[in-house]
Request: fold
Amino acid sequence: MAIKIEMLRSFIVVAQTGSLAEAGTRLGRTPSAISMTLKQLEAHLGQRLFESDRKNRLTPLGGYVLEQAQNELRQFDSTIRAIETFASTSKGLIRIATVPSVAGLIFPSAIEQFVETHPGVTVELRDMDSTSVLNALSRGQVEIGIATSTGALPNIRQQNLFSDAFGLVCAKTHLLARQPAVPTIADLKRFQFVRNELCARIQEPSFQELLSKTRLFAHNTLSLISMVRSQNWVTVLPSSVVHIDPNLVTFREIQGLSQRRQVDLFFRETGLTREFVRDFAEILANTNWQQRRDEMVRGMG
Reply:
């Protein structure tokens, strides 16, 4: 018997709840039906997924299957939502993924331009980190991506939009925000530092030493900004990130740190790509985002 998607869904809910009865309630099935599904899955794999019949502790295989099944279900459910959304739109759908720090800078004006000539097209925006944006493009989950990249992707067109400098991001009331001298990497070591995905792109040895001693990593941009806003933490980010909360958070250059982040447009182009998707990509590609970014940063100053 082949493994079916509903087998994985049943297994995930049982693993999460630790109860056949609770899983049955959530899935609208009887506990005996859920139990039979799990037995079929275990019979196919030839090993147990749970340590006992109580379903409250996974075997090593169960832990591995849970991780893989969750990834598969996310992909499957995302595909179904995309199909249903596409079917419900009258004139088409564009799915776009972008890093959160760039969304507010790029999309308001771009979408205004687009809807003037394509009023019936639905635009779906998603915030993700750069790695997730590129994965979504590779899997065909989105048509357009805005992210920081380290290399080209097969069958995907890439164009630089703008670059911005890395620097200190902290609360406006923080000591490093108020000191007259330009902060240094050594100054950062005196305060609690929170890492983020982009920090790994800075190869300065003294900065990498700082990272090696840091024990807090924030993957989500809004969580990262919230930590910094508390006044107890500092981080290093590109300058345009500050527009997320310009009233409470500030950006300062760091002495000796010259690296910049490159923000690129990625456009998945195939024989099935609709013309309006190409039109939206062209709007993004032909706008002077570097000028807009610089204007925004000056406005926050």
About this structure: Residues 215 and 250 are 23 Å apart (CA to CA). The chain is about 45% helix and 20% strand. The first strand starts at residue 93 and ends at 98.
